[in-house]
Every structure is written in C-alpha cells, then in structure tokens.
Amino acid sequence: MNIQTLLTPFARKRSAESLSKDRSKIRVGIPKVLNIWNTHQFWIGFLTGIGIKHTNIIFSSNTSEEQAREFGKGRGTVDCCYPVKAMSGHYGELIFGQKNKINVLLSPLIYSLPSVLNGHVMASNTCTRVMAGAESIKSGFMKEKNVFEENGIKYASPYLTLDDRIIIPQQMFDGLKDIFDLSLEETKSAVELGFKALDAFNTKLQKQGREILEQCAKNNKPCVLVLARPYHMDNGIGHEIETDLQAHGYPILWMQYFPTDPDLMNWLFEEDINSGRIKSPFDISDVWPSSYSSNTNEILWAAKIAAKCPWITCVIRLSSYECGMDQPTFTPTQKIVENSGTLFFKFGDLDSTKPTGSVRIRVETIVHYVKKNSGSIIENKLKRIKTKWPLE
Amino acid sequence: MHNKKQENSPSLICGMDVGSTTCKYVLTNENGEVISKFYDRHNTKQAEKVLEFLTRLEKEFGFTPYRDKIFFTGTGSGIIAPKVGGKIIQEVVAVAGAVEKMHPNVRFVSEIGGEDMKTIFFSGEGETKNKQVLMQAACSGGTGTFVEKTAKKLQISSEALGQMNYEGYTLHKISSKCGIFAEADSNTLLKAGVPVEEIIASLFEAVVYQNLASLTGGNTPFPQILLLGGPNLYFKGLQQAWRVHLMKIWKERNVALPEGIPVEDLILVPAEAVYYGAMGCIEIGKNETSTSGAYVGSSTLKWWIEEGQHEEKKKTGKQGLWETAEELQSFMKEYSPENNELTEEEKSEGNSCSFVKEFEIINTELVEKNGCASINEKGELTGLEIDSVQLPYVTGKPSVDKLSRVIIGCDFGSTTAKAVCISPETREIVFSCYALSKGNPIEDARALFREVKEALKGGEIVGVGVTGYGKDLLKNIIGADCAVVETIAHATAGFHFFPDADCICDVGGVDVKIMILKNGTVSDFRLNSQCSSGNGAFLQGVAERFGIPLETMADEAFKAKSMPILSMGCGVFLQSDIVNQQRKGWQGQEILASLCSILPLNVWVYAGGLNNLQSAGRKFILQGGTHKNLAVVKAQVDFIKAKVPDAEIVVHPYSGEAGAIGAAFVAADWYQEQTGKTEFKGFEIIEKLTYKTSTSTDTVCKWCTVNCQRTFIDVELPGSKGRQWSKVPAPEGWERVIVNNSCPKGLIEDAGEVKEVKTEIERIKNEYPNIADTVREEAFGRVTV
After folding, report:
1. Can you tell me the distance from the alpha carbon of A79 to that of A22, in angstroms, rounded to the nearest whole number?
2. Residue of B nearest to A79 (CA)
3. pLDDT for B152-176, tens place per residue?
4. What does the pLDDT look like over B204-230, one tens digit per residue?
5. Would the CB atoms of B218 and A360 count as touching at under 8 Å?
6. ipTM at complex level
7. Which domains does chain B have, with CATH numbers?
8. What residues of chain B lie within 8 A of the CB of A235, using their CB?
9. In this complex, is the C-beta atom of B387 within 8 Å of any C-beta atom belonging to chain A?
10. Chain A residue with Cα closest to B782
11. Distance between alpha carbon B80 and the CA centroid of its chain, in Å?
12. CA nearest neighbour of A353 among A179, A235, A184
C-alpha cells in the first residue's frame, strides 16, 4: 500500500482533463454476492459519481441452482463455503448472460467493513475465505485462458479496508485508476458519494426497523429478528426462510439494520452500562472478547439485543454449510437468546438446495411456539427493563 | 521361493484389471504385441474369476510362473495380487499410462465404472505434460450402477439398454446424486406415464451431469476426449449424452476445434475401452524392475478361494449385536414391547376393522408394519414387567363411562390414518384405531370416524385435533379445533410420556426424522431428503432377499454371534457390499445383524447430519416403524451410549400413534384454555360428506415435467370460497383437496392459484414488513440521495 502511495506522484497528471471523461458508455457488472450485500449502495454511489450511468451498473441475479448450472458449471473451485462457491455462477452470468455485454467486472476484495460496532470492537474484518473468494473464483475463469480478456472485459478488484474511510479514496484509486482512467480527485469525491449513499440507505432501513418496533410496542405484538450474514438475504443463499415466517403474519427485522438511536440503545442497555458490565450499548466484550470479525461481532451484538428487546420473541439464525466463522458463535448466541426466554431457532448447513419439506414443517413448528408464547415472553422481558419504552 | 528369471526365454506380461463388476485381462508377448485379452462379469466372485483367467492363460498361452510378469489394477486387486506375486498399479496411473501411450492428443478422459468414476485432464506437452485426476467411489451418483439398477427395475435387459438412445427424447429431472432416489424418481415418472425411453435418456443425462458437475474441478474438457469403461462403451445413449454436453461446453467457452475433423472424431470411444486399465498395467509394468510383478503361480490364490477366505471371514468380522447372554437378556427386559404394547393382531382384532384387513393385502409396503413387533421366541422372556412406563391403553371394549366425553386426535399419514380418543381431564388414552390410507383423505376420515363412533356409542366429543398430510383442509372439512404440525404432535406426545426428553428419532420406512427438543420446544428438525441411507425400507428389502419374514427379522439378527463389517453410506453400494460379504460366507442373519448395527450410524450421521450426538441431549425417544425391530433398537442403544455415556434411551410405547396422541393433547390444551365449543361437524355429516373427484387432463400437474396425474376431490362445505377461477371450477360452498401429487408443489393447483395465494401473501407482507425485502428491492437500484 505504501509503495503504491509513493508511486502516485509519478502517475500521469490527468485530473483536469478527466473531469470531462465520458464514461456514460461503460457497462459495469458487479456479482451480487457476499459483502456486496451490505456495501451495495456504496458501489452504485461511487460508480455514478465517476459518470457511469446507473442503467449501466449491472448486478447479477440472486444465486440459484439454474445460474450455477448454466454459468458456473466446471468453473468451480474447491471451496467448502457455499456462498463463495456460488460466485462462479454470478461471474459467468455477468460474462456470458448479458444481452448488452459488460466492459468491466467489478469484484472487490473487501478486507474490512463499515460497522455500527466500529470503535467498540477489536476490528471489523471480513472472513478471509470471503475476502479471497473473488481471487479464487477469478482463477476459475483464467486457468486455461483468460475468459475476461476473450470477452473484452476488464477485471477490477480493488482491495479495500472499508472500516477506515480515510484510506478508501487511495485504495479505490489504486485498484481502479487504470480500469476507468481515474484521477485521485474524482475518486475522492466519488467515494464520498458512495459512502453518502450507503449511509443514507442504512439510515432509511434502520428507520423502517424502528417503525416496526414502534408498531409492535403499540399493539403489544411480536416480531422476529434474523441473525445471519448479510448475504443470507440472497434468496439462493438464505432460501427466503424468514419470508415464510413473515407470511404467517410476523414482521421481520434483520440485525444489519437494527435501529441504533441513542434513546432505544440506552433503554435496552442502561442497566448493563450502569452496572459496569459494558461500556457502551455497542460493547460486546462481555460476551465476545475476540471481536475481530465484523459480521460475527454484529451477530453477537444482535443476540444481546434480542435478549433485551421485549417484542423480539423469536430469533431465526441462518448459517451456511460448515461455516467456520459461525461455528464458534452457535452456542453463545443461542445461550444469550434463550436465557432471556426468547425463542431461538437455527437453520444451519444451508447450501444450494432448499430443503422445502423440512423448512415448511419447521416454519409451522416455529409459528406454533411464537403464537403460543409471545404474549408471556413480551410481558416477562418488559418486566426486566425498569424504565419506560422511550417512544410510546 | 526362488525367483529364477530364465534369461533368453520369452517373457510375457499380463495386465489384470479387477473391477467392481467385471474382470479384464490383456496379455502381451516379448515384443509388446497383444496375444490375448478378455473380460467377463465376475458376479462378485473376483478371486474365482481371476483364477479362471490365470488357469486359461497358463494352459492356452503358456503364461509361466517364475518367468512371466503380472500387474494388477482395479478396486478388487488388493487381496488377490499378492497371492500370485502380482504388483498393484494404482488405477488412475494405469489408465493414464495407457492413454498417454495410445492417444497422445487426448486432453480429457472420463472413465466410468460400475461403482466409481474418474476423470483425467491432461495439459501441456512433452516434458511439461501434466495430468490432474479426479475420482469418486463413495456414492452411486454418476456411475454405471446408477443406470443399470434403475433399468433393471424398469425391466430393460442389458442388451436393450446398450442400444437405447439419448438424443431426441424429452428429458426429465432425475436426482443425479443418489441411485436410490433416482430409482424413486424413475418410478414416479413411470407411474405418471412417461415412456421408459425418456426415463433412460434422463438417466444418461443425470450421469453425464454428475460427472461434469463433480469431477471437473474447474477444468474444461478440451478435445480430444476419450471415453472409457464399460458404461461409456456399451451404452450408446451415454455416448450421445456426452457428445451433446461436450459440444455445448465447447460452444459456450469458445473452444477452438481442430478444423476438418468431424466432431465425432474428437470424442473417442475405443472398442478396447474396457481394457485400458489392463493395458496401462503392461505399459507401466514394462518399465518396472526385473523382479517386480513376477508371477508365482496360482496355487496360493486357489487355496485362499477354497479355504483361506473363510478363515479370514472370522478374522475380519466383529462381535454380533450382543456380547453375553446376560447382556441380551437385560436388554430384552428393558425394551421388549410385550408388556406395554399391543401386537398388530390384537389391535385389528379389537377393532374388527374390516377396512384394515381389506387394505393390508394391497398395501404391502406398509411402513408401520416394517419390523418385528415381537421378539418373544424364548419363552422365558414373556411376562416380564416393564417398570419404566406403564400406561393405560384401552381398545376394543373400553369402559363406557370413560368414553362418555372424549377428545379425538387424528393423524392422517401417507400410508395410514390413526385416531385416538383421550379423556379430556385425565388425558388417559381410552380408545385407538387405525385405517390404511386409500389415498383419499375423505374416505380415510370416514373409515376412522366410523370406528370411533362405534366405540363411543353416543359419547360426547368436546374437541378434535388433526395432524399429518392435508391437516389444514381436513380441519375445515371435519371441523377440527386444531390443525397440529407433525413435529408439535410428536413432541407433545413425547413430552407427555417422557417430560425430560431431549431428542426424538423417528425412523420410518422411507424417511428419517430427528427432532431436537429444547426448553419445551422443537428447536431443530431434520428430515432426510437427500439420501436414502438409513431408512427402514432398505432393511426390509434385504430381509426379503434372504427370505426372512419381517416378524422374525430381529430374532434372526440376534442369533448372529458375529457379523461382517459393512460400510456406512450409500444404499446402492451397501447392496453390493452385502453380496460381497455373502460370498465370503456370511449368512443372512449375520448380514442382517450387521445392517442393524450400522443403521444408527446412517440415521444420525449420514441422514441426520448430526456428528455430535452430545448436542442432541441425553434422553432419546426412538419411534417409527423401524424401531419396532428390537435388533435395531439394540444397535441404537449401543451406538447412542457409546457417544453419550449417560444417555437414557426409550422406545415410544405408542410409536405408531404418537402423532394422533399429540394431536389429541394439543386439542385438550385448547379445550382447557378456551371456553368455546368444538367445531366438530359430527359423525352424521362426515358420513354424509358429499364429494366428487375429478381426474382429467385439466388436473395434471404442470409445475414440472413429471406432470403428475392428480385428482381433485371437491367436498361440499358451506362457507367455502370455491374455485371459480379454476379450469375445473368448484362452485362456492365447495372445498378442494388435491391428492396423488408426488411433491408439495402439486398441492397448489396452477398459476391461477398462485396468483390467488400470492395476492393474499402480498397483503400479509405489506402489513408485516421484512427488512430484507427492502434490501432486495432497493439496495441494488438507483441511489436516491
């Protein structure tokens, strides 16, 4: 990184002219996988910021067996992580499955992530397997011959530490300057637009989450919280298990967008802070001292929320097949949630096929318990918090 | 042993390939010319076949001990080769050796065998030539057995199968992963009227797909292609399937094909395709040291076939299902069902249900009867008291006062329908009956309620719970108060009898269900759906093959003092493993014992995906038809205790009725909590239910290419919305039940209903938002700030 930084002064001077660069014809494909699922708007904001038309930003479709069969077959790498393995289908779809060919395939190497817990945890790194996923999948398309080149596609893969916003313009510039013929200046302002878009989107969804909670509080009704990695929102990875519950009449919150308004956070964690158990609502050192992984940290944090928040009467845990990052969190999350009397159900070992039969039966089973127990769960949890719900 | 290599005399080299279904040999003279080759099916008698070959080679071609050489390859060579002085060449090395010699331009080899498959990718040239090998032999998906087994069921001879085509047929989806499921899929297709030609073509498709999907490891099969092994050589259709798939891949990936060569010539299927392993042995063997692979004659092999292998049997086997007579007795004392469960005989006698008898004959695959209800062969085991569970259980002539007010629980399963009556306050089970399913839930319900009515003699019904297939529709039709999902029903019944239960393991004839209970809820539920391993149907099939009746299966298994070690996993391979063990001299009862002993492993690990049994808890309830077999129960107890030393294992006393009992208990909860009156429509109305069935081209399921011929049963039910939008309209006041579908999708009538259902779901979704919906809908769209 330092070497790159040093080299920059020797790069061609082009800031003045590139402001007028016409990038309106460039079509950029982004595989909709892994941590793109929580950085989505950053990419759109950035790309439109450098003059790419929003209609020319193409995300691959959701993961599906058909996609893998048609576009990913035989490109696979030996990887036990299904969400990573599924990437080859996304790459293939962007390369071969577009009517209007793409010019750039953008698949970042995301080393760390923005997180509401930043500053309260040791680090917000991504899973190494997930970060390197882009590289290993790429090799499936380069092994025998360069499929990207053959199809006139530039492969772009900037390395990013998204938890450190100051360094991002440089990292984006280093990774993308040759692809889009960028200047550092315009990269800077586009990155700013990217974060602005991402922040705005996150805020909007947190607001939606708060509205759900307010409705629940008002009507004394339960809701369900999903503990999962962001890409479990992909229909082909998480198999829409939570929507089956939604169809039974329960609003669904996702941990990624849990409202973090100070009044709510204080209400939930005041006692723990006063007792010295934790330093802030975002402090998870009481349950997870080695807090290095972003998604994992958030899962533990959300488990604590679920244990406190009265209207969350049921937690759904989604986990992909043999996920090494999830493995050590299973017992702690379950214990944290269940000790509060909240219902906890795990759907583990998810891979390409949705076990429709057993999911249907499990969802009906869960609904039975949620229906039966929610009233008393809400009551008991409300009793435990001494102060009054802030927004009643 | 002297190894006198006779100088100056001709030295012959024999390559012997001992595969899973056939043996092949190739013999070359000192100039490397092939002087004899042959292949034959060994019908699991590998050693015998090799001996036969060697005898012929010695007699007819002068293959001479201590002068000539022999090299072995193939899965069966391990035991045989050392007995004749042969050296073993690894299979892939052998095949690759032959290919490199004979086809320097080949880039991709697929060798499909009876029970294994491999691919070899060659890259680079000359010195830098590399090969990458991928193989699998753990699962039948993609192998020759996969096709042959199903073809056999469809009564297609091997000759006819070889000539059947792939091209030009409509392809159907057949599970490419598991041979037993492929067979089931094929059955479904056949029942749905799909021509066998299309089924076979679909099987070829599945084999090629499975090979390409699991054995390419990111490589592209570049021309030239070499297809080897029996299935590739003898099944014309398989060759066609390869051609179609490879051409598609080449087109997709812009693979430059050499000009002027017809595509057919890029995919080679040599006439000697089955001999490549054997020929490779010779290729590799030629460069071996002079002492390597020196043939020592066949006398040791002959001795081993006649005597040695039987002695070995004793050494390789293990103790039977029990060690000491005391151990078996104490097991029997604890688990014999004699004292707390009625035999099937008593049940049907008690209820004198003619309906049951009528259908018992037809439905031979009845799951609930799969297994041994009684082990009571040794007189001394009868009359033992079971102290763990003693439950009242009344059928036939229940006391009238107990039947004056009851709650009914019904379980409508796919093979049987059961009902129990419980007393609302004491929850005592006062009556039970069952009927074999006719495939029409209305008729099943009628049959059940007739029985109940007979028993109640005018007693009052204060609540009804239903569980099982079609519970939601039946709830409306019979007027049940609760539709109970099966997990809840089983857990409720389980908790009632064993309040500290942690895990329910239900092994039926065709499925394995594991329910993990925590904090009074069903926290996890595993339903085996990917692999047939571990179910009871397999056990039953093997017992049938040995001519052992189901009733005495456990007794027979307990008679075995030792048993062979069978491999865990794929049912298809287990079958051939069994034949193999049989050949070693193991008897039917010993093999059955072994099958029972590996069943728990298959149930928990292979089918249930539970590697850590500790995580399931310590109190286990075994239920389902297969657990009526005490040999299985013994194996389960030993298995579970080995993993969870302080485990407590009980067999559900009313295994078959657990669902119905649970439904009744849930209804009893409802009865105690609510003040409402039961919705039960009454016997008269159920008896008089008006329904009409339609089976026509309009009721065919269009959700997939299987096109199940479904039946719509419309029941008159005041207040129902009807289905005016349907192709087979149901007027207002009629409720539709769909049957004869082979998967849950078929329960939805057609796109029209999806629209109806979707609108309703959309309405609910708008009312109850899901944050992820917003992400899915908006996160990848335009930036709005």
Report:
1. 40
2. B217
3. 878 888 888 889 999 888 887 777 6
4. 988 888 888 778 766 788 888 999 988
5. no
6. 0.90
7. 13-86+293-313 (3.30.420.300), 96-279 (3.30.420.40), 327-671 (3.30.420.40), 690-767 (no CATH)
8. 776
9. no
10. A54
11. 32
12. A235
